[in-house]
Amino acid sequence: MKTEEEKQTSSFSSRIGLIMAAAGSAVGLGNIWKFPYIAGENGGGAFLIIYLICVLIFGLPLLMTEFLIGKQSGKSAFGAFRALRNNSRWQWLSWSCMVTAVIIMGFYFVVTGWCFHYVVAAVAHSFKGLDTGSFTEHFNSLVSNGGGMFAYAVLAVLLTAVVLWFDVNKGIERLSKILMPLLLVMMMLMAGRVLMLPDSNIGMKFFFQADFSKITPEVVLAAMGQCFFSLSIGMGAIITYGAYMPKRQNIMATSLQVVVLDTLVAVLAGLIIFPAVFAFGVDPAEGPELVFVVLPAVFEQMSFSWFSSILFFGLLCVAAVTSTISLMEVAVAFLTEATATRKHPLNRHKSVLVVSAIVLVMVALNVLSLTDNGSWLCLHGDNFFDWSDTISANILMPVNAFAMALFVGWFMNKTETRQEIGKKSNWQYRLGAVFLPLVRFLIPLAILAIFLNGLGIL
Fold it and tell me: How distant, in Å, are the alpha carbons of 33, 51, 62, 106, 266 from that of 269?
């Protein structure tokens, strides 16, 4: 059993601290790296409208679902389901969250390392005079250089481990209160700079003017999938933060604030990227290379290119680190709780060291699979890096979210759920009344559609 002092250090000390940390978990490379190119591939404004609808109908209730599981149980992903049902039948879901977080960390830290590299390169004026073709060579050189790529990823792992070394309110909460406002300020500065470009209004029109002929079942499924990925749903991070939530804090209000911040960052990313690419005649549907190849070349054509590159890749690093913190915290809390009753339990410090070692192994496999020496890590034409992304995003996260929706909708105490969701005000009570029908019926069907689409069946 934890002492009262230990319980207090394993929780957020303020409402704003939890909101900033949870928003930091949700806000990441999915908003700034993935959202713009998926929007570009799916019609811009049409995709944005469908995405916002998906966030309200599916993303918000699922975020509330994870917060509810964590807060009601007071446990991390390891013990939450068993505590709420008083049996171990749902323990598989605890392990699935843990595995999902570890797999995601393996490739996410690699991409975070890329961001670190680009900041260093921008500061060193390494991009001066390069065009799109040169940036393609630069990126390919980075990916093929396993040693350099691994070094930057290790730096990202070590920085995250240092934050998690401290208690929740001294580490995660304190840094989140700094990084999230900093990220928003950096993005607003960058958006203001880009919107001053000639013809930036064309990009604004593409992003905000909906062409409803572009809305297809594929666009809807892409928006739903991006919604889940962007909000960090289905990996146990929000459950873990929910366990640290003060009992007086309201789940619905907190979830709404996190969703608003997350969506704001995604929209700001669109305001940065689409005006920039249209101002210089670049195709917005360039895919994942948009951030690391196309945009640096665009920045080099702008005045104050050095500052623009540093600012953009700096904000990418901030967004990435806020997510790596929550991902690693899932594993650290899981391991600490799982060994609490053992003869030799692991405290937070030991758990951070063990998790860091596991993550470094996963990072090494991902890095090696991208080099010429990693052909043995390829299967059916895809490398370990691609498989990690595919398995986590298309299989594990949808399965976990599907199971969590069923768990809350059908197996948790309905009276306690309604009281927790609908307390505080009349509007929350009215929204709470539709929460259970959503998580019982509509959301599982939507997740099933995403899952089948990810597997290529639908």
Answer: 8, 14, 23, 25, 5
